[in-house]
Design brief:
- By secondary structure, the protein is mainly alpha-helical.
- 78% of the residues lie in helices and 0% in strands.
- The chain has 20 helices and no strands.
């Protein structure tokens, strides 16, 4: 069984890494493609980006229901095929209605894939192995996106629409590879998640059970602030601040983004060894402190007039510090969502948390771009500093709500005298024979 679960994780991991690789071919160039290559204008390009986000918001409320009733595998396959259709459609569309319809398919497909794959990881791991699984997923996603973006940059030609069609075709093929990889995965019959919510709570209804779970609601609030303060600012507010206030060149902004990816790739497994036996709430609080320093560095970069090299270094450091914080979150947040979920509601919990992330990603860019665009650079930095300090406070408060085993699953694994009828993770692995290899995993949301 151990070998079977290891093989399942490797297959999911490979498919997900390849799909991230394909996604990297198009993500940096979507705006340019729609606005200039297809000559549909900046307004249509912005509408396409908004459509990707709002299509995800439309399907995520139903995704958890489908996962918990049909299983994550068929849902993930449907998402992969839908994404492939949307991606290829974008590459072939030449009119605004077709571009928008293709964006709907792509955004909805990707949104469905994320919680489905996260649930598959949960089913193929234990509370002890789950942190490493999600950390590896995050590492592979960023590595795939980075390599795909670099190769895409070599293939793309702004004067030749055919070069963009080639990029979108590669992305579509990679989504189909993901679908084929996970379609052949043999999952365990039931999720291997400790059920922290009493069984009778499930009789009240799935959504009622979730919304009355104070720990999950607090984690959703924390997650919203996390995603708003980091991912929600990358492509809008922070980029606008860098170019309009710090006055760095667009090419330097590319270097800053590369620094973010490099920090994640270099730090992920070093960070994992440092945090995987520590309390999750404390790790998230540390992320808040790191990101506070990052936003202060960004603010300072806009004040160092006449010292362009110093300002550029501070701005690049901001992106690198964000990467280190992201490395701390990947083995922490997604596994905690899984450990809070009742066994029968893993898909719902993953989908709701993905919805929270999507809301932050929909609201964050607009707020950042508007504040910087209207000359409110100082209040913008101040708002984000308050958010990151809030992350630390929210994480510490959440830690007081969690049980010791939820905050640090290794406590559960090494409890010497478990009560009769209680299954520790070590016991579960022995009984089911399903421990995952130390370095296996795949995707989620965080």
């Amino acid at each position: 069984m151990t070998t079977a679960m290891g093989a399942a994780l490797r297959r999911i991991q490979l498919g997900n890494a390849l799909s991230a690789f394909g996604n990297g071919f198009t993500v940096p160039y979507l705006y340019v493609y729609v606005a200039k290559v297809r000559d549909l204008g900046a307004g249509t390009a912005g509408l396409v980006l908004m459509t990707l986000a709002f299509a995800a918001l439309l399907v995520l409320p139903f995704t958890g229901w489908a996962i918990d009733r049909r299983g994550p595998l068929p849902v993930a396959v449907v998402g992969a095929v839908t994404s492939a259709v949307g991606s290829l459609g974008l590459g072939l569309s030449t009119t605004e209605p077709l571009v928008i319809l293709s964006a709907v398919a792509l955004g909805a497909g990707i949104a469905v894939i994320q919680p489905a794959l996260a649930t598959m990881i949960v089913w193929c791991s234990t509370a002890v192995t789950r942190s490493r699984a999600f950390a590896t997923q995050f590492f592979l996603n960023n590595l795939g996106l980075g390599i795909g973006g670099l190769i895409g940059g070599l293939l793309v030609d702004e004067t030749a629409a055919g070069s963009f069609v080639r990029l979108f075709a590669i992305e579509a093929v990679m989504f189909l590879v993901l679908g084929a990889a996970i379609a052949t995965v043999r999952l365990p019959r039931t999720a291997r998640v400790e059920d922290p919510v009493p069984g009778e709570a499930r009789g009240k209804g799935a959504l009622r059970s979730l919304f009355t779970d104070r720990r999950m609601m607090w984690l959703c609030l924390l997650g919203f602030v996390l995603f708003f303060a980091c991912y929600g600012q990358f492509e809008s507010g922070l980029a606008a601040y860098a170019t309009e206030v710090t006055h760095i060149a667009p090419a330097t902004l590319g270097i800053a983004l590369a620094a973010n990816t490099a920090a994640i790739v270099a730090a992920q497994f070093v960070v994992l060894k440092l945090v995987e036996r520590r309390r999750r709430s404390r790790v998230m609080a540390v992320v808040g402190l790191i990101w506070t320093v990052a936003w202060l560095a960004a603010g300072l970069s806009g004040l160092v007039h006449g010292a362009h090299a110093v300002a550029t270094t501070l701005l690049i450091s901001t992106y690198a510090l964000f990467g280190i914080g992201e490395s701390l979150l990947s083995p922490t947040v997604a596994p905690l969502v899984a450990d809070l979920a009742p066994t029968s509601l893993v898909g719902l919990y993953n989908s709701v948390f993905a919805l929270v992330k999507q809301l932050a990603l929909a609201i964050g860019p607009g707020m950042g771009a508007l504040m910087v665009g209207h000359g409110l650079a100082a209040p913008y930095i101040g708002t984000l500093v308050l958010c990151t300090v809030g992350i630390s406070l929210l994480a510490l408060r959440l830690g007081r709500m969690l049980s010791p085993a939820q905050d640090n699953p290794h406590i559960r694994a090494f409890t010497p005298d478990a009560p009769t009828g209680t299954v520790t993770d070590t016991g579960a692995e022995t009984a089911a024979g399903a421990g995952a290899p130390r370095r296996e995993s795949v995707t989620a949301v965080a």
